[in-house]
Amino acid sequence: MRINDPDPELLQNREVREDPEMFPCEKEVRLYGSKETDRMTISTEVPPAIRWIIAHPLCEVDWVRVIDGYIVAAHATIPRRLVSVKSEPRKSNHWNRVFSKPEVSDD
């Protein structure tokens, strides 16, 4: 079931799981944007990315997909300033290392 414009409180109270109906090769993180706006779009079926989207206060969640009460996918916009591509590889290739804990500064 897809929930459009979900209530943030609803998101905080739901667990995230992998979608049992999708193959691993179908579970992706997609990030895209244009030069015309200062926001980017992120869409994913990868649990660490879903958790990051739900937890980050600057994410504007457009929709989530829920199966058996668990969030299995999310689509949101984020400020472009949150995105950075590293020049050096990280030590770990795990998805939970790709998304840092949400922190927001006042600057």
TrEMBL record:
Protein name as annotated: Uncharacterized protein
Where are the stretches annotated Disordered?
88-107
> So which domain of life are we looking at?
Archaea
The species is: Halobacterium litoreum
